[in-house]
Amino acid sequence: MNFEEPLLLLLVSPVLLAGFYLLRRGFKTRVIITRLLAISLLVAALAGPFTITSHTIRDDAPQVTVIADKTVSCDLYDPSEGESLYEYLKVRTPSRYREITGIRTALGDEILKSGGSGEHIVLVSDLNNNHGVEITNAIALARSQGAHVYAVEQTPIHTDTGIEIAGVKNIIVGNENTYHAIIRHVGDETTYTLDIEADGRTLYSETITQSEERKVIPLPYTPQSEGSHRITATIRPRGEDRFKLNNVFYKSVFAAPKPMILYAGDDSPLEDVLVELYRVDTSRLSGARFEDYRAVVIENKDAETLGPHTGKLREYVAGGGGLMVIGGEKAFDRGRYNNTEVEEILPVLSKPSRYGGGRNIVIVIDASGSTDAIMYDDIKFIGHIDALAQSLVNNRNIAASTKIGVVAFGSSAEKIDFLSATAENKRILNQKIAAIGPERGAEPTNMDKGIIEAQEMLKDSSGEKTVVVLSDGNIRENEYAIETAAIELIDEGITLHLRQVGIGQETFTTMREIAESVGADYQYIGTSNLNIQFEPVPEAPEEEKKEEEALRQFGLTITDGEHFITEYQNISGDITGYNDVTTKLGARRLVATAAGKPVLSVWSLGLGRTAALTTDYGNRWAGILYTAPNSKLISYT
Question: Taking the model in full, what pTM does it have?
Fold first, then answer.
């Protein structure tokens, strides 16, 4: 039994002492004992007793809702696929059928309408959600209510290629802006001509052959005059092109004169970057009229210096202004910001963030010959194993800073190198996992090669290391080699989870015996889902942390690539120092060190926005941020 507030149990001690005292004074023993028992039970109840138990819920006839997307964009796929799936399911389990039609795809709304406890929602769609609730938010809410959401992978029956230009709407005269031409393609490989013009001038013209679903081409553009400008992209496919409407894209932008910003700092590489982009006033904060500026940039100032101006800065930002605070030897944790009014308007707390050390996960997939057999209905063992691997990749408790790699083994081992768990990389991993399968039916289950390859992948990684093996457990040889490989893996401090799939009761016991022998975590999950819990990474000892930081520089990584500041950005290089802060709840950490320490964090305050760059202004720690191409991070912020 466990207690929510175990310290309350200490109150039993004075109760017992009081009872003992009353007994010594001659009070009735029976009365005292019954009172002691009653009070002790009340104290135990206040402590919140609870027990943790696990149980498996099996639903032989789950409620399934098939949502068929028949909007215009799904004309590329077989329109009867949703109905065919429904007809297949309804004779096997209680099922419902819903359709989405028209030119707008409100897929998120439909998920919310169908998402109840225990509901299974199957999407037959291209997932092009362009109206209503975001599909990721809808799926997260449905899952929190106990629903399960699946998507059917469809094969296109037509080919189509479309063009879009992504980028900001409001720009500054004379400053180079990078837009991105996004070419989306469905179907067979195609060849097309892409022409992009702006203000009557050709920005890009090329003939391209494309087989991938998405291609992104950067487009540098510098407006030479104030006012409205239009960028036009035209694509001319040579083969089949189902939709003609998406062959031309117009992007309207407005160029404004260079705004005035207030820069409160010393001569530094940061000032050189700002002078190139804006009209910069280097007046002091004292006496400044913040409302006269589009943004205020404060560099390496301590809390005592900023204190008298905090009230005005708060009003300025809340009214729609922009504030960017740069770190250094006198700022944030080194400038006594913690628990001050200065800290209240910033997106970070000026105290050390919890040490993460990075998390590294390798998923080892059994792609041996035995997994090519049918497991249930028309699903093969390898199909179920691949789906489990994808569910692990999509685990919402895995942060974007986590690195995930994949190893597939049969007679040999093949790997998919580490990718950080961003939304885009998860999509790439899911696609690669879906393609994993046995090449020859006679391939043996050489799990030892998969474990050895996983250990090799983790050799140079720092932080938490985890290996998850997914297999049918059909091991007929190599037991000793597998056991030896597992022992070596665990001896290096790597956590090993073994999960065996199957039908009905556990048939093969070799995998369980190996796990018991080496001390690995094992579970026979049958046809169920994975239940591996990823706990917060423990904080490293202070001495170990200092030693690690002294031995290396701090590599930078984008932790949120879906924000307009970091979208399509590539950050490279190392910084040599930073201010140790914690990103606030509700703020967004856009860039961090490899160990997860925030470098660039942003949030909204009222109608305005504040940003905290928690490294210095380029003189000592972060010179790499103020040179191309990394300097775009500063200008976009």
Answer: 0.57
